[in-house]
Design a protein that fits this description.
By secondary structure, the chain is of the alpha+beta class. The protein is built from 19 helices and 16 strands. It is found in: Cell outer membrane.
């Protein structure tokens, strides 16, 4: 944390950088704080550092779980899963989130000084101060949440601990030796920042005059034309009140989970915040019918599935090069496991068991349609070719090319643009990709989990139930209707298992599974399985990769170099 310097290095970026689709950095300069704190563009450049390091869907941390194997022997998540996780080696660490916290704290100092004129007009200037302070507080809460998610745990003292919470910028010679708060105090500190941000941010950017939030419309001499200057839809990819409410729901569900507080109050908070937002889009009727493949085409990248995303990138093929099977010139890096494939039910909604019609020798027939959308199966057409992972499959056959061909019998399809083409000469036809920070489907699943934990499958919050949500999600997926299996679910425990499985499928390969297993207190050591067609029969491969997490790995370590430097920091138990 002491890497921050007194004279801040700023990459000056036009003030709308998060809000538009073209990023135009200015020249890089070292600037005195006094100059930065009086120049609107320079000051906002500090704030925009808070938008760096946002967690998106491209971590591929599933390789550390029962959902996938990474075939690159040097992959950090693979190494972690095989037993290398320690206080010295933790690829899932988020301790560097505090660097962004200090950026926004520096900006909040500027805001507090009130020396910048964002506009010559008094009202416009006041509204700029409101919105930008709201952004900074929300981002400070969010980056603290990232650190909490990765490093909360039972300390050596036996207490459930959170993280240090920094509300001021600290000079290089200042005191960084700050103890961790309790877990709940950490949650409450983040909530406080979110709640204050909600009194300053517009619910959405580009609101019509009749929709303007009270805290703006009640300002003395309010003028809608001036309001538009500050909160126009030009800024609609920056953090807003809607996004903050969704983040509160995510935080509350995390806090309420069995590995942490297991607390009904936080389940209520999660469900109510989620319901409030979902009801603004029509409740379950607002579930985007095309949300399953939000990544698959240009129009879906900007669809109603997106609660918060980045600006659109340029055409690229980097992820496809990493993940496509070898026969279509990819490196086949992420291999979904047979464990994951068997999480998909039959097309009639029943679990995939032989008692329900699953045929081990015709394993992909009559399955949930999401399976073929998310996983490249043996015999599938993909990337301009037919992919065979069994006997006769050439380069795509299991273990044909070390660290390139599949190790499980499957290749990844989800998140990849199916219209990307990688040519034999190394050239490629790339397509647009986007970083997704929050999807509405995640919010629906947050609601379902929380509402069920409060009162079971049919408990209403805001007029919605967990059963309503899961019914809509499975109907969108293509599960046969009526969904008799869902109708058979009557208890909280049965619905809990179904919700967790739906979350596993719907949010697969978006960086959730590793964190979900930990917050639910489930085993991290499920052996990764594969499935191979030997020319005559499908054969299960029961031990593709044996995981080796310590029993205390539910709570990950504080980085050892921080523990060594700062005596007030208490390490999590076992590390």
């Amino acid at each position: 944390m002491k890497n921050l310097i007194k004279y801040i290095l700023i990459v000056l970026v036009f003030s709308g950088m998060i809000a538009c689709d073209i990023l135009e950095p200015f020249d890089e300069n070292r600037l005195d704080f006094d100059e930065v704190s009086t120049n609107p563009n320079l000051a906002e450049g500090i704030l925009l550092n808070g938008y760096s390091g946002l967690v998106d869907q491209y971590s591929f941390s599933e390789a550390a779980t029962d959902d996938a194997v990474n075939n690159n022997l040097n992959n950090n998540y693979k190494r972690m899963a095989l037993g290398e996780l320690s206080a010295q080696f933790n690829p899932a660490s988020r301790w560097n989130s505090f660097e962004r916290v200090f950026w926004v704290n520096r900006f909040l100092e500027i805001i507090d000084a009130r020396e910048i004129k964002w506009s010559r007009d008094t009202l416009t200037n006041k509204m700029f101060y409101m919105r930008l302070e709201g952004e900074a507080l929300a981002l400070r809460g969010l980056h603290h949440f990232y650190a909490l998610q990765a490093h909360a745990g039972i300390g050596t003292s036996g207490e459930l601990l959170g993280i240090p919470y920094f509300t001021e910028f600290i000079e290089p010679d200042g005191n960084f030796n700050v103890p961790r708060l309790s877990f709940e105090a950490s949650v409450q500190a983040i909530m406080a920042d979110f709640d204050k941000a909600l009194t300053l941010l517009p619910t959405d950017y580009g609101l019509s005059q009749g929709q303007v939030d009270d805290w703006y419309s009640d300002l003395e001499d309010f003028d809608y034309v001036k309001y538009q200057v500050v909160n126009d839809n030009f800024f609609n990819l920056r953090i807003s009140g809607r996004i903050v409410k969704a983040l509160k729901a995510r935080l509350a569900l995390f806090a309420a989970s069995p590995s942490f507080l297991n607390n009904q109050g936080y389940y209520n908070l999660a469900a109510n915040n989620a319901a409030e937002i979902l009801n603004t889009i029509g409740g379950v009727a607002g579930l985007d019918p095309n949300g399953l493949e939000f990544y698959a085409s240009d129009d879906k990248l900007v669809s109603s599935e997106m609660l918060w995303r980045s600006s659109l990138g340029s055409n690229s093929s980097n992820y496809e090069k990493r993940m496509f099977p070898p026969s279509v010139n990819g490196n086949g890096e992420i291999n979904p496991t047979h464990n994951f494939v068997m999480a998909f039910p039959m097309q009639n909604g029943n679990p995939a068991t032989e008692a329900n019609g699953f045929d081990p020798q015709n394993p992909y027939a009559n399955r949930d349609p999401r399976l073929e959308k998310f996983v490249v199966l043996n015999g599938a057409s993909f990337g301009g070719g037919t992919i065979n992972t069994g006997v006769g499959g050439g380069n795509d056959r299991l273990d044909s090319i070390p660290q390139q061909s599949t190790t499980t019998g499957y290749y990844l399809k989800k998140l990849l643009r199916p219209d990307v083409r990688i040519n034999n000469d190394g050239t490629a036809t790339g397509k647009i990709h986007v970083d997704v920070y929050f999807r509405y489907t995640e919010l629906f699943l947050i609601f379902a989990e929380a509402a069920n934990e409060i009162g079971g499958p049919d408990h209403q919050v805001g007029g919605i139930t967990a059963r309503d949500v899961i019914a809509a999600i499975r109907n969108r997926a293509g599960i046969a209707q009526p969904d008799n299996y869902l109708a058979s679910i009557t208890t909280m425990e049965e619905m809990r298992e179904l919700i967790r499985n739906e979350r596993r499928i719907e949010l697969s390969f978006e960086g959730h599974r590793f964190w979900d297993l930990r917050r639910w207190g489930l085993s991290l050591n499920e052996t990764a399985k594969g499935y191979f067609f030997d020319g005559s029969n499908y054969v299960e491969l029961p031990s593709v990769e044996i995981r080796n997490y310590q029993p205390f790995a539910t709570y990950m370590p504080i980085p050892n170099n921080e523990i060594v430097k700062f005596s007030e920091l208490e390490q999590n138990n076992g590390w």
